[in-house]
Amino acid sequence: MTARRPTVVQVAERAHVSIATVSRVLNGKLARPSSTERVLAAAAELGYVPDATGRSLRMGRSLQIAFAVDDVGNPVYTEMLSGVEDGMAGSGSRLSVASTGHNPADLMALIDELSRGYADGLIISPLRRTPELIQALVDAAVPTVVVGSLDAGAPLDTVRIDSGLGVRQAYEHLVDTGRRRIAFVGGPPDTAPGSARLNAFRLAGSEFGCAGPVVQAQGFTVTAGEQAWLELAGLTGRRRPDAVLAANDLLALGVMRAAKSAGRRIPSGLAVAGIDDIQFARIFSPSLTSVSLKARERGRLAARLLLGRIAAPGAPTRTEQVEPELIIRESTS
Amino acid sequence: MTARRPTVVQVAERAHVSIATVSRVLNGKLARPSSTERVLAAAAELGYVPDATGRSLRMGRSLQIAFAVDDVGNPVYTEMLSGVEDGMAGSGSRLSVASTGHNPADLMALIDELSRGYADGLIISPLRRTPELIQALVDAAVPTVVVGSLDAGAPLDTVRIDSGLGVRQAYEHLVDTGRRRIAFVGGPPDTAPGSARLNAFRLAGSEFGCAGPVVQAQGFTVTAGEQAWLELAGLTGRRRPDAVLAANDLLALGVMRAAKSAGRRIPSGLAVAGIDDIQFARIFSPSLTSVSLKARERGRLAARLLLGRIAAPGAPTRTEQVEPELIIRESTS
DNA sequence: TTGTAGGCGTTATCAT
DNA sequence: ATGATAACGCCTACAA
User: Fold this and answer.
1) Quick check: A1 and B141 CB within 8 A?
2) B61 touches strand C (CB under 7 A)
3) Residues B119-131: tens digit of each pLDDT
């Protein structure tokens, strides 16, 4: 911790070779067996480990990947992060995590920071996909992979999932199980998932004809879900919903909690379904029916995509598609 | 993304000064106003941003902090991570996250990796504090802050919390609310929190005399908690517990879920309390009584400690202490 | 096969 | 106040 770490120079001296030979041996290039042996021995004795910064400077690669996450409090991002780590396994790169909070400026600052060269690429799953953000990502100093659907125009690698299809699956399931007045608790409408899922709900509503009231929550949080329930709770008669479809699991959990406190029975009095299938969805009582958006798999794919892009910067942009999957649990059956 | 980024050389040429002056101006050292102005203008026009790698090499600092987490699936670590980010705010350093899984070798490899100089320090909250691990941390290439209690001997900065006191608080609360046969669901006994909390439970038991059966779970997970309940469920008569104290919230949630499925009423038939006070503890039904171990605060303090250590490597080791806090909710009252 | 030397981008010393 | 230059640790032509 105190002693200065040995460098190629120390190793070279000890092995009685030049630093070039040291570097070659350590990087697996060919060298005379005797030299190889001496270098390896010297390196081992000295406890030599190549310096990441020196190597980065020389190679022009930091061997780091940045992952920007909007809301660390949402388990879905933890799962995605876990997937990113999986996808990076064996790549030799490390993971730099930045939570950008809910401040768009933070995110822009992060993208700017990339031009410092501390990461070779960025994985991002932005809640708000504004044109400015997309443009910033396209112009970023390093390649970016977006987890989320983009207009075909943007020259960016993406990992997509049709969350609208997920909404439809949940909706259909609610109808199949006899619900006839399905309320929707949407996320903030200015977010990509917020608007996409609301649209899908409206579409499903016009097809199946069981759409009930729509509430826009302030965020994708449990608290917002609880508040959303308050708006729903007052409705009576024909406006009173027999099911709630929420734009994500945290909202659904909030709705369930508030509805239960208010004396509603779930699922007999009210069915509730969410989206994301976070790990806790299974644990709740009643356990929450939810549409898995395969966060982990998306993270894994994003990492593969990014590593591929870094290896071949000129290759045509790619898109990976993942399919949503309805997981039926107690809250609807 | 394609064009090579400008360096001090470009800026210097454009401003008609030397690279030394560019560096000085950009780092806020004194310079003639006219030079300052020209340099700033040139830098702005070129969109110059200092390269992190070049700076790191020269400064001998990577401006990165590593955070090693045993189990990303446990929200308590997400909260701690969040605290670490808070504590690092404004320091100019970035956060590198590595989840070491449950493989001790991974962790050792991570510590070895530190000697590559990719981080200036490490924050770690290890489940298993073996002598080998502690020694490795002491010998690590960069300073380490341990979130957890260590023997006084180890020359490491630490953030402590008396989780035994937390166990006692919960135990006392259960006794106060009339429970007379308190079961304990402990984590793996070879982990630091596993053994510390079990010991505290035994101590409280001998003091208050209401200790019931003890179950050792395989891990600190919901699933392990569900399995633990299975062991408890068969007990009858005098061995049948009227309360369960679990070594962490995930275990407690698992116990609650399994007990409810088995028809036990909570808290009337069985009281359940956990430890950690993860965000979801509040959301469950019934909401979970838990002892907050201030994960976020501990993360924040760890970051401060580490930054201080990096700034003053020779300073005496420090320990921050945080107090546990019992949060009473529905699962016990 | 091996060594010398240059350069990646930055900061800091030492003259001027 | 400023400029030339060295140095951080590494890899890799290029020359021998």
Assistant:
1) yes
2) no
3) 999 999 999 999 9
Q: From the first residue on, what is the mean pLDDT of each consecutive set of 10 residues in chain A (333 residues)? A: 82 96 94 94 96 97 95 93 95 92 85 95 95 94 95 91 97 96 96 96 94 94 96 84 97 96 94 97 94 98 97 94 98 94
Domains and CATH numbers, chain B: 1-49 (1.10.260.40), 54-161+295-323 (3.40.50.2300), 163-293 (3.40.50.2300)
Residue of A nearest to B121 (CA): A1
What per-residue confidence (pLDDT) applies to B38? 95
Segments in B60-159 forming alpha helices (H): 75-88, 104-113, 131-138
Residue nearest to nucleotide C2 (CA to C1'): A21
N residues, chain A:
333
Phi/psi at B280 (5° precision): -75, -15
pLDDT at A2: 53
Asked whether residue B59's C-beta has any atom of DNA/RNA strand C within 7 A, the reply is yes
* Spatial CB neighbours of B206, under 8 Å, sequence gap ≥ 6: none
Please tell me the distance from the alpha carbon of residue B199 to that of residue B100, in angstroms, as a whole number.
27
The minimal CB distance from A141 to the residues B1, B50, B117 is found for B1
Contact across the interface for A53 and B118, Cβ inside 8 Å? yes
- Tell me, yes or no, if the pTM score tops 0.85: yes
Residues of chain A positioned with their CB less than 8 A from the CB of B138? 1
Q: Check CB contact under 8 Å for B72 and A53.
A: no
Q: Is the pLDDT reported for residue B279 higher than 80?
A: yes
Task: Encode pLDDT of B19-39 as tens digits.
Answer: 999 999 999 998 899 999 999
Strand-pairing partners, residue B271, are B243
The token pair that represents B92 in the structure block? 């100019």
Which structure tokens are listed for A26?
Answer: 């350590």
From the list B52, B112, B313, which residue is nearest A116 (CB)?
Answer: B52
Residue A9 CA to D8 C1' — how many Å? 13
